[in-house]
Amino acid sequence: MKNKYYARTTRSAVKKLRGTTDKEAATEQYSEVVSMIDKLAKNNVIHKNKASNLKSKLAKHVNSL
After folding, report:
1. Which pTM does this prediction carry?
2. What values do phi and psi take at 13, rounded to 5?
């Protein structure tokens, strides 16, 4: 049950970051979201490659702002 909560919270944070248009706010959020994704991968809630792909796409989004 706890894993489901953390996964859902992280997905919400990812959606919020993708919707951000302000570069500074996105940069701050990015580090928090990456930390959340890494924790999920460490506990095998998501696969490490999925975590890497998510981080890469989010970094691309933040850099494009």
Report:
1. 0.90
2. -65, -40
